[in-house]
């Protein structure tokens, strides 16, 4: 019941148009409170589809008798579901204000024009059906949303248009008398002219109606007879007619259409012929007799709408089932399924398909035909296309021509115009080279190749001497699809390059050119760097042995060494050869500035340049103004780069990486990693001894990148690892290692006491010593850190492992006993 009321609501508010059967208005029975949220959403979907905004809902509902209270409830439900925004766009307003509709005063309820294809989203079966239907030639008229067959309401009234009840006539009297009347034809077929009375016009054409009305008006307007008053009669608002569409049609039923609607308009409104419907046998039945037969192919192929007659009230449009259909696939311009008449042949269908494409194979068309019991293949030669009779279900396949050429040859490589050429009678390789404007200067004249296909299309090759061909000492005939390749001597050689490294701005590889000198290569490399030396420039060269020698020589390259002048020329005029490698050395006395950093408790912390290779830690501390009074020398440390220069071994980096990976879980390593990267090593120094005895063994030479950190006086000790309460405590010179651990709660049961160690503020590390059965823990200093590692996890043997070991031992014992018995 709810579904019925919902449908009635759609119909009542004008959301469903072209009602197929008259509906008794029952909108008053609609109760919005009884509708589900999904039903409300369906109402909104229909409103969107028909471009009805929310603001116009009141007008539509009131015209159909829906109470105002129910309309308010409906709008509230729409807003509650946040669907009102979807109906707020001005684009949803109906197009009843268009000129086409207003000129004739069309009732909006009658002209809410909608196609049968505007419906709910299709199911999978419906989509498959539509896909099959789209293959039918002409179906796109009813599936393409860009096409429309809405009647033209602004056209002049057709001469054969017959008036009926519901039409409106506009009578315009002008001249000596000026008056205008808009009169509707009554159900009895009359119009009532003021001061004159009824005039019967039903069934009259516009011309007949004008003559009758003019004759009647002469009674009250004398000027009509004398020619001083004139009468103009035109059609105003037109009536709606009821047309029945039956047969093989997408949506058969009764449709309300404007009285100017034609057969095509009715077909479009109903969705067009169905999958089994005929496009060529559409009948219009009037008063029980067929009066017209409409063929859509006349319109599709010739634009002929002669039989697209204007419908009248109670007309029946019947779409008959098709009788014969064939399908064209392959190389035609419009592959599709075509409906045929009995007199048509394959040529007619090809014409409907637009003819062959440019690459169609036209000699033979293959047909898959259905016989009474089985299928068969029929070949249609081109000479029989015009007379070939068709059967329903025939499927014609038009192949494409082969992708190969009948007279093509290629030439590529070192010729001036490579490409494809036509194979002419008795054509030779010399002729083809001439067509290509000859060989280039760098062509390899000793040997070229023809790649050829045998009769079975297996590949083969044929070589020839180009010089013999060009000088007509030899002739080689060509065959279809031959490919001639003339090789270039430059392409056959390895690319000539030279290399330069050392003190140039852009070291690397460069292309070699003839007569190149070292100075030329230096310029190509961006010139010399600031550290470059013009002396002892070295060139290494490949050893080439073109002959055969039995002498074994261990020399792998030729090396030349010489000095360059200021203009980069060499005194001996040395010329480079392909693959030479040039090395420009650094000036021995050249040295870049090297700096170190001092951070912490010195008077002037910051960066300092190393003045000499013998400068030590004490020297730079003095340059920094010395230590501050609050400095703690015992906690000073030095960070030094792992790699000082390019000569350092890469093995060191690998060892350090393994070292850090092994100690990754150590808190000490994690703390050190937070202060410096793995490319820097922590180097413990004794700054107190350095400053007391400058130049002593503790006073290290400085290196580039060194970082010296001098902390303030430290007053704490930090505990990590297997103690019950790891924490930082105040340093007390009178407390021992055990006392600090005891203040932190003592060792845990998992503590490995004998492996405890201390990391001092300067980075030095001391571990616990074992003296007899006692542990000798390191002495502590301010800033020190105590680390107590954990024991390794150990577990006893499981029952299965014990059994396995016992079984193994028993097996070994048995083997030994057996061997002893054999020996005895």
From TrEMBL:
Taxonomic classification: Bacteria, Pseudomonadati, Bacteroidota, Chitinophagia, Chitinophagales
Q: Which residues form the signal peptide?
A: 1-19
Where is this gene product found?
Answer: Cell outer membrane
Q: What protein name is recorded for this chain?
A: Capsule biosynthesis protein
Family stated for the protein in its record: Belongs to the BexD/CtrA/VexA family.
User: Disordered: where is this region?
Assistant: 89-125
Keyword Transferase (UniProt): no
Pfam families given in the database record: Poly_export (PF02563), SLBB (PF10531), SLBB_2 (PF22461)
């Amino acid at each position: 019941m709810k579904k019925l009321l919902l449908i009635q609501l759609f119909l009542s508010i004008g959301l469903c148009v072209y009602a197929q059967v008259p509906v008794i208005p029952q909108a008053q029975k609609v109760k919005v409170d009884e509708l589900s949220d999904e039903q409300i959403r369906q109402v909104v979907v229909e409103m969107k589809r028909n471009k009805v905004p929310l603001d116009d809902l009141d007008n539509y509902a009131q015209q159909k008798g829906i109470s105002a209270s129910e309309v308010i409830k409906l709008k509230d439900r729409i807003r509650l579901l946040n669907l009102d925004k979807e109906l707020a766009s001005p684009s949803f307003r109906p197009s009843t204000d268009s000129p086409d509709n207003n000129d004739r005063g069309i009732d909006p309820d009658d002209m809410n024009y909608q196609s049968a294809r505007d419906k709910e989203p299709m199911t999978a079966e419906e989509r498959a059906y539509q896909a099959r239907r789209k293959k039918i030639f002409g179906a796109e008229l009813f599936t393409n949303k860009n096409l429309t067959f809405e009647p033209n309401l602004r056209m002049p009234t057709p001469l054969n248009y017959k008036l009926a009840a519901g039409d409106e006539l506009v009578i315009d009297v002008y001249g000596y008398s000026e008056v205008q009347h808009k009169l509707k034809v009554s159900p009895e077929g009359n119009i009532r002219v003021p001061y004159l009375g009824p005039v019967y016009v039903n069934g009259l054409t516009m011309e007949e109606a004008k003559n009758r009305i003019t004759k009647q008006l002469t009674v009250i307007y004398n000027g009509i007879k004398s020619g001083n008053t004139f009468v103009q009669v035109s059609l105003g608002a037109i009536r709606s007619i009821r047309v029945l569409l039956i047969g093989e049609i997408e949506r058969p039923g009764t449709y309300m259409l404007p009285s100017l609607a034609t057969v095509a308009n009715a077909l479009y409104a109903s969705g067009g012929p169905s999958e089994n419907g005929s496009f060529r046998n559409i009948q219009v039945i009037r008063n029980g007799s067929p009066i017209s037969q409409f063929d859509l192919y006349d319109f599709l192929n010739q634009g002929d709408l002669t039989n697209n007659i204007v419908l009248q009230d109670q007309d029946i449009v019947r779409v008959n089932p098709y009788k014969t259909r064939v399908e064209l696939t392959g190389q035609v311009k419009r592959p599709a399924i075509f409906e045929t008449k009995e007199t048509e042949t394959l040529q007619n269908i090809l014409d409907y398909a637009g003819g062959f494409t440019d690459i169609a194979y036209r000699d033979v068309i293959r047909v898959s035909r259905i016989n009474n019991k089985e299928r068969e293949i029929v070949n249609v030669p081109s000479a029989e296309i015009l007379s070939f009779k068709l059967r329903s279900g025939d499927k014609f396949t038009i192949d494409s021509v082969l992708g190969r050429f009948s007279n093509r040859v290629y030439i590529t490589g070192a010729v001036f115009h490579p490409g494809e050429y036509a194979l002419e009678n008795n054509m030779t390789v010399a002729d083809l080279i001439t067509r290509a404007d000859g060989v280039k200067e760098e062509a390899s004249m000793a040997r070229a190749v023809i790649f050829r296909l045998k009769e079975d299309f297996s590949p083969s090759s044929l070589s020839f001497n180009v010089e013999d061909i060009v000088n007509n000492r030899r002739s080689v005939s060509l065959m279809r699809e031959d490919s001639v390749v003339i090789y270039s001597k430059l392409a056959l050689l390895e690319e000539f390059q030279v290399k330069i490294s050392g003190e140039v701005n852009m070291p690397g590889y460069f292309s070699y050119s003839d007569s190149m000198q070292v100075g030329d290569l230096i310029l190509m490399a961006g010139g010399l760097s600031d550290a470059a030396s013009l002396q002892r420039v070295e060139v290494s060269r490949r050893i080439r042995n073109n002959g055969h020698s039995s002498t074994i020589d261990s020399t792998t390259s030729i090396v030349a060494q010489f000095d360059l002048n200021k203009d980069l020329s060499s005194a001996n005029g040395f010329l480079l050869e392909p693959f030479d490698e040039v090395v420009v050395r650094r000036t021995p006395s050249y040295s870049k500035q090297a700096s170190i950093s001092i951070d912490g408790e010195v008077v002037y912390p910051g960066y300092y340049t190393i003045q000499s290779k013998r400068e030590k830690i004490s020297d730079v501390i003095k340059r920094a103004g010395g230590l501050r009074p609050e400095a703690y020398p015992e906690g000073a440390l030095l960070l030094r780069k792992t790699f000082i220069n390019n000569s350092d071994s890469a093995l060191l980096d690998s060892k350090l990486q393994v070292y850090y990976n092994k100690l990754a879980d150590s808190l000490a390593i994690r703390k050190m990693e937070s202060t410096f990267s793995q490319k820097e090593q922590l180097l413990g120094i004794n700054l107190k001894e350095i400053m007391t005895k400058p130049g002593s063994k503790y006073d290290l030479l400085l290196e580039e990148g060194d970082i010296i950190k001098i902390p303030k006086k430290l007053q704490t000790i930090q505990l990590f690892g297997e103690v019950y309460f790891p924490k930082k405590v105040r340093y007390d010179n009178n407390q021992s290692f055990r006392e600090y651990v005891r203040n932190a709660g003592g060792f845990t049961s998992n503590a490995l006491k004998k492996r405890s160690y201390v990391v001092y503020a300067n980075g030095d590390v001391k571990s616990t010593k074992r003296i007899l059965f006692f542990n000798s823990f390191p002495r502590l200093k301010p800033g020190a850190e105590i680390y107590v590692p954990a024991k390794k996890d150990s577990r006893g043997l499981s029952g299965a492992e014990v059994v396995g070991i016992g079984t193994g031992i028993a097996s070994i014992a048995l083997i030994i006993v057996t061997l002893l018995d054999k020996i005895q």
